[in-house]
Amino acid sequence: MPSPTPVPPRDRADTPWRSEGAPPAPPPKKRMPGGWRGLILTALIVYLITNLVLSFFNEGEEPTISYTEFSKQVANGNVSKIYSKGDAIQGQLKAKQPMPDGGKGDYTKFVSQRPAFADDDLWADLTKQNVVVTASPVVVQRSFLANLLISLAPMLLLVLLWVVIARRMGSAMGGGMGGLGRKTPPKPVELEGAKRTTFEDVAGIDEVEGELNDVVDFLKNPDEYRKMGARMPGGVLLAGPPGTGKTLLARAVAGEAGVPFFSASASEFIEMIVGVGASRVRELFSEARKVAPAIIFIDEIDTIGRARGGGAAMGGHDEREQTLNQILTEMDGFSGSEGVVVLAATNRADVLDPALTRPGRFDRTVMVSPPDRAGREAILRIHTRDIPLAAGVDLAQMARTTPGMTGAELANLANEAALLAVKRQQKEVTQSDLSDALEKVQLGAERPLVMPDEERRRTAYHESGHALLGMLQPGADPVRKITIVPRGRALGVTLSTPEADRYAYTEEYLRGRIIGALGGMAAEQVVYEVITTGAENDLEQVTNIARGMVGRWGMSERIGRLTAIPSDGQSPYGLSAAPATLDAVDHEMRRIVDECYEAACRLLRENRDKLDALADALMASETLDEAAAYAAAGIPRLHKGAPHG
Predict the structure, then answer these.
(1) What is the average pLDDT across 337-366?
(2) What's the angle, vertex CA 397, arms to CA 396 and CA 398, rounded to 5?
(3) Cβ count near 337 (within 10 Å)
(4) Mutual angle of helices 453-472 and 608-621, in 10-degree steps
(5) Which residues pair with 623 in a beta bridge?
(6) Residue 508: CA atoms inside 13 Å, Cβ hemisphere, count?
(7) At what angle do helices 407-423 and 431-443 cross, to 10 degrees?
(8) 50-67 pLDDT, tens per residue?
(9) Contact 406, 371 (CB under 8 A)
(10) Per residue in 159-188, pLDDT tens?
(11) Are 175 and 280 in contact (CB under 8 A)?
(12) Nearest 5 degrees, angle CA 164-CA 167-CA 171?
C-alpha cells in the first residue's frame, strides 16, 4: 500500500471518470459562444430593449393639443410646418410653448385633430402665415412590426429566462436535460510532473502482482503476443475484502505499463433517467480507445453488475440493467475493445452476473486477501516512509500483533501513531505510540467514565474470566492485554491475538474460542451468581462461531457434512435447507454452547484462586500487559485473534 497519491480531477460534472497519463486533448476550436442562434437571440434582445428605452424617452415629446390651441398658434404665426392626413394634423412650432392645460415642460412638435364640423378658413390662415404644408409626416410613428415586437417583449423575456434556467439545470444534471442533450467530448487530464503509482508502491500482495504482471507485459509488448496468436485479456476482476488494495493495484498496473488510466465508480454511471448510464459507458470506452492501449478501472462494480432477472423495475429494462448491458457489449460485443483492458474491483464477487465473469470479458478473477505477517511488515514500512521513527521501533513486532489487518487498516494505524506523537509533542514516533495507536484502533478510544467500585470489581472478574480461560486452554490465542478502562462501548476489554496467521481452524480451537468468549459470563455466574448485560458482544461472537460450526463447516454429527446456512451473512436462517434441518441446526448450536458454558464454569471453579488473583491485579493496575497478566494469574507462558468485551 502506498502513501496517498494525488487523484486526478474530473474535467466535467457529467464525466464520471478520472484519467491520468493520457495525452492532453487538442485545444478546442474557438467559436462564437452559442453559435449563430446565440447571436440572433442577442441581437433581438438588444433591439427590443432599445425600442423599449426609446419609447420611454419619446413619450411626451409629441403631445396632443386641442384644435383651439392649434388655431391660436397659427394665428400668432408660431407654426412653421404641418402635415395633414384626413382630419389628423401633425405640426411643428417655430418657438417652444408651454404644455397646454397645465402640463409640465415645453413642446415643439404636436398632434391635433380638426373637427368635422369646423367651418373656418384654415388654408387661408396657413397661407397668410407662410406655414409650410409638407408631404411627409412631421412626427414619424413606429411601424406595425416594431409595435408588435414591443408588445411581445415581455413574453420573449420570459422565454429567455426559461432557457437560461433550463440550461443551468441541464448542466447540473450532466449536459442538456439529464445528460441527454449536448455532448462535449471530455478532455483527458494530464498530471504534469505527478509521479504515477507502480508496483514499488505495493507490498504484501506479491502473488497478486504476479497475476497482474501478465497484463503489464501484454500492454508493453503487444506484438510479441499477437505473433503467438494470443489475445489481450479483456478484463481482470479484483475481488477481496475492503481495504486490501484493489484500487491501488489497478493504478499500479497502469503506472507500471505506462498507459493511460481511466478510473470511475460504478455508482457514478447511474442516473434517474434511463439510458444515461449506458451513454456514459459508451463515451468512456470511446475515450479509452482513442488513446489505446489503455486501462479502464471500475470500482464497486457489483453496484451495476448484479445478476439480472431479479424482478427489476420497468419490465427488466431499468437504468442499472441498461448500463450493465452496455458494459457487456463494450467488453466483448460487436463494437470490440481492442487495446483496452478493463479492471474492476468488488467485495461481492458472488453476486455478479454470469455474463460479466465469463471468459472473454473478465478473463481472470484475482483474489486480493489480507496480507500475511511479512506483507504487513512491508506495508508498514511503506506507510512509515514519511514518518520519523525512533531508533527502537520494531515494525516486525507490530506486524506479528496485527493478524488479519488489511493495508488500509495498517495505513490508519501508522497515521494514528503519528497523530499521537504530535499530541505528545514528540519529534519522532516511538514504539509506545504504535502500541497505543493499535489499542485505539482495535479496542476503541478510552472513555472518561467513573464507575462505582462494585461495578469495577464485577468488570474485573468478567475480563479475568476471559483471560484466564484463554491462558488455561492449550492451543488458545495468548492473552496480550487486559484492561478495565472503558473503551468504545465496552466497560473492559481482553485482547488475544495468535502468534502466527491462521488460515484453517479445528473444531477444538473453535470450541476454545467459544469457551473463552463465555468466560466473562461464567465468571460472573461463579463469583456473583448473576448475569449482566455486559456479555452482549460475547454472545454475538459465540452465536456466529456456533452457527458456522454446525451449518457451514460440518462439525455436527447430527447435521452431517452439508451446508445448511448460507455464507453471505444476509439471511442466516434463510430457506437454504428444509425447516426440519434448520430446527436441527438450532438444537445443535444450543448443545455446543451449553457444553462450552459448562466447561467454562468448571474451569473457573477449579482455578478460583487464579481468577481472584487476576481480578485483584486488575483492580490495582486497571491495565495488565501480557507478562503482567500471566504473572498475576500464576500461569507459566508456555504457548506463544480476537478481542473479547
Answers:
(1) 82
(2) 90
(3) 22
(4) 130
(5) 483
(6) 4
(7) 120
(8) 666 656 655 545 777 877
(9) yes
(10) 777 777 777 665 555 444 344 333 444 444
(11) no
(12) 140
